[in-house]
Design goal:
The structure holds two protein chains of two kinds. By secondary structure, chain A is mainly α. Chain A is 65% helix and 2% strand. The N and C termini of chain B lie far apart (61 Å). Classes of the chains: A mainly alpha, B mainly alpha. The interface between A and B is medium-sized, with 23 and 21 residues. The complex binds protoporphyrin IX containing FE and copper (II) ion (CU). Copper (II) ion (CU) binds next to helix 7 of chain A. Chain A: It is a multi-pass membrane protein.
């Protein structure tokens, strides 16, 4: 085949994937790694629900429960949902803006490997004296060196390494969207998913830096005898809460904004209408991004900061409801009067809207500072954020998965299995989390490993656990679907199987490694749809056919991340009794990382060119 | 292609117009640098002299700091030049986001201690 002529095809499969800098392959790496972490954290959730299915169960111990609850939250937020969102951002954004790759392909690969090694470092904790157990928020003094176990060290360093990966990927996406747009693709023509990716990336840059600082302080406290958070020595525990939530609230918007973007792509495609109120959507996204930084104290209402501060932050929090409401109405109006097709992707996307509204309503309830003293640290909060995270983000991810799957893997997912999965997941989700509102209101505290009989909590906990099992069954069906479709589904050969509107559907399936043989000329919002109506259905090229400059693959990102992983382990091993001194780990890791960086700086790498003839032949073969 | 990039360039490809611009830019940078040194000296003198009361010195050097920041960003880091819309908007949004955060933290942690 001609396509074998290009550079990456000449490598062995494993080496190709380890060294790839192609945004489409990195997307698939993110998707696989994120899914594995998702399954791991999901299994923990199921075990926690087994423990809570009846009063005074003894399925797992309280200590294990604490470790599960911490790892479940930490993994889901940092190592499952974030990478899966990055997978779609990586795959789709360059295609949607008509680019050949992201701005810094090398940094893209680095971001993936840093995330991956950070996740592995965190997971290693199971083999060295137990996982972190102070909750995903890791509040001091519970997490201080006096009271927190060795697991917290893994939390601190694992998140530090993977957070670095998230940070560099965020920078990469900002530059990509600003600099790599095709001719004619103005800022007000980029699809909404690109806008939400841009705003999310900005939030990452502004929010992951405080997290890195906070984690560094906690590391100094725990490993190097610092006293930032130790009151007896002049420190202040509340500073940790502030730093954590200055990061933490933007983080929840980092997660939900890309899901908004996915929904805004899927709903117009299956309503056969343009997105209602594109401009309003863009500005709502920007405003949400901004306000996301002004509300962190709503997680600390019960700390005792005082009525004035609480009121200010309560009002700021409620204000976010306004731009969010604008978005909800825009999705509804997009569907209004459209020619709706309810396939699996659209079912997930459409059901996102009401569940997300429920989560928003409880959010505004929680924002009322005086009543929050009742809600705080009960299952009501658990219900709130799961309505947002599962009912919002995860549904969005499933919609995106079913929607973009044909472009990514060359075949659709099975619709029958998909619909069965949707209904199981949707019913299971509401069973699990709706009753948790009421559990919270009657006083069940969160993060407890058991409860007593005769407090009116038995039935609802039972229902909640059954719901969780149904959700788990839905995920199993999704996996069956993926395997079944990979073996049985009909291969997609057309470029645009959904009759959609945006540029990614103007590329061939499978997408050649250079994406667009000729950069497309964009003439409107929803460029492909415009060409279908006003042109011949194909994008007009903005440049003549020519040879294409591509970046070389590189193993350096892997090595740089491996080095940091070893350094991180070295810091942790100050608290471990290993036969190798921590200083040796740190030195070895440091040499690997800085050596790789030096190599990258010294060795010139100008990439390679795909000759014009090969491009022409590949184009002929694919169309 | 790739081979060409390793070749050194023999002579500058800039036009005279561009060269003149670069020269002017250099002069502006020098002046900005001198002004900044002057401001720093002023700050040192204000802080070191016994004659000025603290109530004057503190706001005064804070004001100097703001001027410095502006000079650094706009003259040294080229925010004033054209085609710097994106860097400008990122810098400004960074300031707009961090300023209230820091003020809130100072008010909260500095006064009520949490
Ligand atoms: C209309 C928008 C929202 C409002 C008004 C809101 C409000 C709140 C409030 C006041 C709390 C603190 C409750 C307490 O601890 O007593 C809270 C907790 C939480 N919210 Fe939201 N929220 C909103 C949207 C979101 C979104 C979009 C997400 C996620 C993507 C989210 C995730 C969370 C999480 C994870 C927590 C619990 C954190 C913890 O204590 O571990 N919220 N929310
Ligand atoms: Cu929040």
């Amino acid at each position: 085949m001609v396509s074998e002529a290009t550079n990456t095809r000449q490598k062995s499969v494993l080496w190709d994937w380890l060294t790839t800098v192609d945004h489409k392959k990195i997307a698939i790496l993110y998707l696989i790694a994120g899914t594995l972490f998702f399954l791991k954290a999901g299994a923990m959730a199921v075990m926690m629900r087994v423990q809570l299915i009846a009063p005074e169960m003894e399925f797992i111990s309280g200590q294990t429960f604490n470790e599960f609850i911490t790892m479940h939250g930490t993994i889901m937020l940092f190592l499952a949902v974030t990478p899966i969102l990055f997978a779609f951002m990586n795959f789709v954004v360059p295609l949607q803006i008509g680019a050949r790759d992201v701005a810094f392909p090398f940094v893209n690969a680095l971001g993936f490997w840093l995330f991956f090694f950070g996740g592995v470092l965190l997971s290693l904790s199971w083999f060295f004296g137990g996982a972190p157990d102070a909750g995903w928020t890791s509040y001091v003094p519970l997490a201080s060196r006096e009271f927190g176990g060795i697991g917290i060290d893994f939390y601190v360093l694992g998140l530090q390494v993977s957070g670095l990966g998230t940070l560099v990927s965020g920078i990469n996406f900002i530059v990509t969207i600003i600099n790599m747009r095709a001719p004619g693709m103005t800022m007000m023509r980029i699809p909404l998913f690109c806008w939400t990716t841009l705003v999310t990336s900005i939030l990452i840059v502004f929010a992951f830096t405080p997290l890195a600082a906070g984690l560094a302080l906690l590391m100094l406290d725990r490993i190097f005898d610092g006293q930032f958070f130790i009151p007896g020595e002049g420190g202040n525990v509340v500073i940790w809460q502030h730093i954590f939530w200055i990061f933490g609230h933007p983080e929840v918007y980092i997660l939900v904004l890309p899901a908004f973007g996915m929904i805004s792509e899927v709903i117009p495609a299956f309503s056969k209408k343009r997105l209602f109120g594109y401009t309003a959507m863009v500005f709502a996204t920007l405003i949400i991004g901004f306000l996301g930084f002004m509300v962190w104290v709503h997680h600390m209402f019960t700390v005792g900061i005082g009525p004035i501060a609480n009121s200010v932050f309560a009002i700021a929090t409620m204000v976010i409801g306004v731009p969010t409401g604008i978005k909800i109405f825009n999705w509804l109006f997009t569907m209004w009067g459209g020619k709706l097709t309810f396939n699996t992707a659209m079912l997930f996307a459409a059901s996102f809207v009401p569940t997300f509204v429920l989560g928003g309503v409880t959010g505004v309830m929680l924002a009322m500072a005086p009543v929050d003293h009742l809600y705080h640290d009960t299952y009501f909060v658990v219900a709130h954020f799961h309505y947002i995270i599962v009912g919002g983000i995860v549904l969005g991810i499933f919609a995106a998965l079913f929607y973009w799957y044909p472009k990514m893997f060359g075949h659709k997912l099975n619709e029958t299995l998909g619909k069965i999965m949707f209904w199981l997941f949707y019913i299971g989700f509401h069973l699990t989390f709706f009753v948790q509102h009421i559990l919270g209101l009657i006083g069940m505290p969160r993060r407890v490993y058991t409860y007593l009989e005769e407090q009116g909590m038995d039935t609802m906990n039972f229902i909640s656990s059954i719901g969780a099992f149904i959700m788990a069954a839905a995920v199993v069906i999704l996996i069956i679907n993926i395997i079944y479709s990979a073996l049985k589904a009909e291969r997609i050969t057309v470029d645009d199987p959904w009759d959609a509107r945006t540029l990614e559907w103007a590329t061939h399936t499978p997408v050649p490694e250079y994406n667009f043989a000729q950069t497309p000329q964009v003439r409107s919002l929803d460029p492909l749809f415009y060409e279908k109506i006003h042109g011949n259905g194909k994008m007009k090229p903005a440049e003549p056919m020519d040879e294409i400059h591509m970046p070389n693959g590189s193993f350096i990102p892997f090595m740089m991340s491996l080095g940091l992983f070893i350094v991180g382990f070295g810091f942790i091993s100050f608290h471990l009794d290993l036969f190798i001194s921590p200083y040796i780990w740190i030195a070895v890791g440091g040499i690997i990382t800085f050596g790789s960086m030096a190599m990258r700086s010294i060795k010139d790498d100008h990439g390679y060119h795909i000759p014009k003839e090969t491009v022409e032949e590949m184009e002929k073969e694919l169309s | 292609m790739a081979e060409d990039m390793e070749q050194p360039f023999e002579k500058s490809s800039m036009s005279n117009e561009e060269k003149r611009k670069i020269n002017r830019e250099q002069r502006v940078q020098m002046i900005a640098f001198a002004v900044m040194i002057g401001l720093t000296l002023l700050a040192f003198i204000a802080a070191g002299s016994d004659m000025l009361p603290g109530t004057f010195t503190i706001p005064f050097i804070l004001l100097l700091a703001v001027v410095q920041l502006f000079l650094q960003l706009y003259y040294f880091m080229h925010l004033k030049d054209k085609d710097h819309g994106w860097p400008n908007s990122f810098m400004i949004s960074g300031l707009v986001l961090t300023a209230p955060t820091i003020v809130a933290l100072m008010l909260l942690i500095g006064i009520v201690k949490f």
